[in-house]
Design brief:
288 residues, alpha/beta, Rossmann fold, 6-phosphogluconate dehydrogenase C-terminal fold, six-stranded parallel sheet, three-stranded mixed sheet, 11 helices, 9 strands, elongated
Length: 288
């Protein structure tokens, strides 16, 4: 018998759709019901086998669900929590795939009230530039990290069930507090996206933009790959984690000011020092 009966997914694209496909591939779920913003998207998700059927009314589905995954942009999550909160069954566990946690946890607390113990926040570190049901892959989470940020109210059983679900997707499970999660990802994920968007935008709005893009090569392609990501999603992430992101942006600006001063002073020694530290840190991280 599959470990989970009904899985409900809000957002059947890359994150939610891949979660559903992975659990199906593992034989770990009996039925997947999808909710989305447009019937057309849900039809595609069903045609591709991401979901078994499209849900019509959450009030008729939620109570019997084992797991509810909210995999929408984070700005949409408060409304979804409000819709499903009154109808959660006693054994239903809600989790999410949001890239920020402080705002998502606050929204869940406001909407779920004394049922907050049934919400186990999570963040799969497996993003890509593509979106929609067509981007979903059963193997997306193989060998990837999933950060679970449990709440004090979560029972051991609820936490174990969500960890087990992500493990069945092939993921490696880590734990952080919601606060530490947002601090870490402001630095290693949200800031790089902001910088990548900024660089491409700077070139794109120039009168001779076509000339620059003509000669952009592999270094530019590697650095700006994430600028092809979904604008709405990253708008929501940046605003949701703006306090931590502002701090990281200020720190980065100080680094740029330091490098600018070195250039202005023709200080090659300082440039080489910074580049050397960065190179070694990058090679240590990448295992080169």
């Amino acid at each position: 018998m599959p470990e989970f009966g009904k899985l409900i997914v809000f957002g059947t694209g890359l994150i939610g759709g891949s979660f559903a496909l992975a659990l199906k591939e593992a034989g770990a779920v009996e039925e997947v019901v999808g909710f989305g913003r447009t019937p057309a998207t849900l039809r595609v998700a069903q045609q591709l086998g991401v979901i078994d059927r499209a849900g019509i009314n959450p009030t008729h589905e939620i109570e019997e669900a084992d797991i509810v995954l909210v995999a929408t942009p984070v700005a949409q999550m408060p409304e979804i929590f409000s819709r499903i909160g009154p109808y959660l069954g006693p054994n239903t566990i809600v989790t999410d795939g949001g890239s920020t946690k402080g705002d998502v946890v606050a929204a869940a607390r406001a909407a779920l009230g004394d049922r907050i113990n049934q919400f186990v926040p999570a963040h799969p570190i497996a993003g890509a530039e593509n979106s929609g049901p067509g981007a979903a892959r059963w193997d997306l989470y193989q060998g990837k990290k999933v950060v679970v940020t449990p709440l004090p109210e979560n029972s051991d059983d609820s936490l174990d069930r969500i960890k087990r679900a992500w493990s069945l997707c092939g993921a490696d499970i880590y734990e952080l507090t919601p606060e530490m999660h947002d601090r870490v990802f402001a630095a290693v994920s949200h800031l790089p996206h902001l910088l990548s968007f900024a660089l491409v935008h700077d070139l794109a709005v120039r009168a001779d933009a076509e000339l620059f893009f003509t000669f952009a090569a592999s270094g530019f392609r590697d650095f700006t790959r994430i600028a092809a990501s979904h604008p709405e999603m990253w708008r929501d992430i940046c605003l949701a984690n703006r306090e931590a992101l502002l701090g990281e942006l200020d720190s980065y600006r100080a680094q740029l000011d330091d490098l600018r001063l070195a250039l202005a002073r023709n200080d090659g020694e300082r440039l080489e020092e910074v580049f050397g530290v960065a190179r070694q840190a990058r090679r240590n991280w990448a295992g080169d």
